[in-house]
Specification:
Elements lengths: L3 E4 L9 H16 L3 E6 L9 H13 L9 E2 L4 H13 L3 E3 L9 E3 L11 E20 L2 E7 L5 E6 L5 E6 L5 E4 L5 H6 L4 E20 L3 E6 L6 E4 L7 H11 L4 E5 L3 H13 L6 E5 L2 E2 L15 H6 L4 H9 L14 H7 L10 E2 L2 H14 L2 H15 L7 H11 L13 H4 L7 H8 L4 H13 L8 H14 L8 H9 L7 H8 L1 H14 L5
Parallel strand pairs: 1-2, 2-3, 14-15, 16-17
Antiparallel strand pairs: 4-5, 5-13, 6-7, 6-11, 7-8, 9-10, 9-11, 11-12
Helix pairs in contact: 1-9, 3-5, 5-6, 8-10, 11-12, 14-17, 15-16, 15-19, 16-18
The structure holds one RNA strand.
RNA sequence: GUCCCUAUCGUCUAGAGGCCUAGGACAUCAGGUUUUCAUCCUGGUAACCCGGGUUCGAAUCCCGGUGGGGAUGCCA
């Protein structure tokens, strides 16, 4: 059976990092299985869904190379299908309104009492629930309401679906049967609006059933039916609720595998009933754990860097982000980390996805990005940086050749493209020196005199002869003459001409700056920084 | 409250009962290369949440606890 997977985001604002991870895993899964990857826009929240958000989403997917098959399905267009499905459920007796006379009352889906032969329902044995002493039990077509005693002696009200209590008997404190639910009174209960109330109850005895399914990521999962409730499928304004719309669309699109966030695990137990009663094949599920922030909490909008756009803006490469994100909660099983897209597709097995949440580490992401940048040729790197800088209006009007040479000097020092912002001193003398660097490197006695002398000697060098090698020779000679330690002038010179203590080789740097610029920067420092140092 | 899920270095992970003296990567520390930084190379510190079982043998299986997350919406 060919695999049909889908990504079904709600287009509300920016694209969340956890969301795009789900998209990536779906895409990888579909591509690995040589199946289809469909895109469905769940735009039913009219208040929050905007065209702009949809465009942002499509752009993000395009940027990350997540191509989808076929046309996009827009959920709002499927309204008639959703409504027809609701109607079918109602016709078959699987749905009801709390107030049958009021069409404005929301339509509830009822988890069917007769479901023991469903492929995802199994018997879980005899069960008994002790009730708060002398409390009442209400039984109605929307389920059971009963009171239990909490650990601190507090009475808690519980409401669960009727299907949770097969062959229910309500016992009084003496153990006598007060009420028995069976085929004889079931139709009356389902047909009546008013609940049957049993006073002075002490315990509930019934056969427990549970919903179960196998999750490709989480393994065998189950949930007792007596912890589930009937749920609304059509709101009082007539619009379909997520559960119905989502399931209907998956049926319409022929989705065979649902890969999504594990916040949907609980929904799955409900959706199984919908697929079953709508006569559809039940899909295979895979629930991915969430991505969490540095505090170990799920990413929220307030975190910053919660959106794909943030990473793009900061100068992360799509391939690097893709690679990193594919490794968050998944691993090929060997020690490979930096992998090409094709390699990842080849190695991707959804069953190997992690079951617990993963924390996104921006430092490791940057390291990964640095690996991808290092793969680029100097020329490609320069071109990439250029277009990145241009978009930001950095270094406008800089000589292209100077820019290229700077880029090749700084290539191995660049992890993310925003690092490039610090290149300003190559192109302009308009920088603020780092006070710490100044203090550390320019306060030794005799330093300023030496720099002044160095400048004088540099000024005598022929224009075309001002190379890295020439600069190095000047420094060495001067150090020796003045009895200074070898390289003692390197850092002072660097601070004076770049304002910082770190960077590319200083000889190459001054060669790039040129004789005039180098000398004028030294002179400027002599006149304006010297006394502060 | 109830239900569901989850737990290996700081972080991402390898690990499918003996290949584990627990491997890799990022981070970190030390050393080497080097004019600083970065790159590159070498080495180090660093983890099986706790308690019971099962077994000749448990990071791996089972039970309990604890921590974390999720669900419990006329949000999706």
């Amino acid at each position: 059976m060919p695999v049909i997977a889908r990504f079904a985001p709600s287009p509300t604002g920016q694209v969340h990092i956890g969301n795009i991870r789900t998209a990536i895993f779906n895409w990888l899964f579909a591509r690995h299985e040589k199946g289809q990857f469909l895109l469905r826009i769940e735009d039913t929240d009219l208040e929050r869904s905007t065209r702009e958000a949809i465009d942002t989403l499509l752009e993000c997917m395009n940027w990350l190379g997540l191509d989808y098959d076929g046309d996009i399905m827009y959920q709002t267009k499927q309204l008639p299908v959703h409504l027809a499905a609701a109607e079918r459920l109602a016709q078959a007796g699987h749905a009801y309104r709390l107030d049958p006379g009021d069409a404005k009352s929301p339509l509830y889906f009822r988890i069917p009492y007769h479901c023991s032969d469903f492929p995802f329902v199994r018997d879980a044995g005899e069960a008994k629930i002790e009730l708060a002493a002398g409390s009442a039990v209400e039984i109605s077509r929307s389920g059971l309401v009963f009171r239990t005693l909490g650990a601190k002696g507090k009475v808690a009200e519980n409401q669960y679906c009727l299907a949770g209590f097969l062959d229910l008997t309500v016992l009084d404190p003496a153990g006598q049967v007060l009420f028995r639910l069976d085929e004889s009174n079931l139709p009356q209960i389902l047909g009546a609006v008013e609940p049957v109330t049993i006073q002075n109850a002490a315990a509930l005895c019934f056969r427990r059933r549970e919903v179960f399914y196998h999750d490709l990521v989480k393994g065998d999962l189950s949930k007792p039916l007596d912890s589930m409730r009937d749920f609304i499928v059509i709101r009082s304004d007539g619009s379909p609720v997520f559960h119905l719309a989502n399931v209907c669309d998956d049926i319409t699109q022929g989705v065979t595998h649902i890969v999504r966030g594990d916040d949907h695990v609980e929904n799955t137990y409900r959706h199984l009933f919908l697929f079953q009663l709508l006569g559809a094949q039940i899909p295979v599920y895979a629930h991915l754990p969430m991505i969490v922030n540095a505090q170990g909490k799920p990413y929220s909008k307030r975190d910053g860097d919660a959106f794909v756009g943030d990473y793009r803006e900061k100068g992360f490469l799509a391939e690097a982000l893709f690679n990193y994100l594919s490794l968050l909660g998944w691993s090929p099983g060997d020690n490979r980390e930096k992998m090409s897209r094709a390699e990842i597709v080849e190695a991707f097995h959804i069953e190997k996805a992690q079951r617990s949440p993963a924390q996104l580490d921006p430092v490791k992401l940057a390291s990964m990005n640095g690996l991808y940048l290092a793969d680029l040729s100097d020329a490609d790197f320069a071109a990439l940086v250029k277009s990145f800088a241009d978009r930001r209006g950095w270094f406008a009007g800089v000589d292209p050749d100077l820019f290229r040479r700077t880029a090749s000097l700084m290539h191995s020092r660049t992890k993310i493209l925003t690092d490039v912002e610090s290149w300003g001193y190559f192109f302009s003398a308009d920088f603020t020196p780092d006070p710490k660097a100044v203090r550390k490197n320019l306060s030794a006695p005799g330093i300023w005199e030496a720099l002044s002398e160095l400048r004088a000697r540099m000024e005598k060098v022929e224009d075309g002869a001002f190379t890295a090698g020439a600069a190095e020779a000047l420094l060495r000679a001067l150090e020796e003459e003045r009895g200074m330690k070898q390289f003692a002038l390197n850092q002072p010179l660097r601070v004076v001409v770049t304002g910082t203590a770190v960077g590319a080789g200083i000889y190459e740097t001054v060669e790039l700056l040129g004789r005039n610029e180098t000398c004028s920067r030294i002179l400027r420092a002599e006149t304006s920084w010297q006394h502060e140092a």
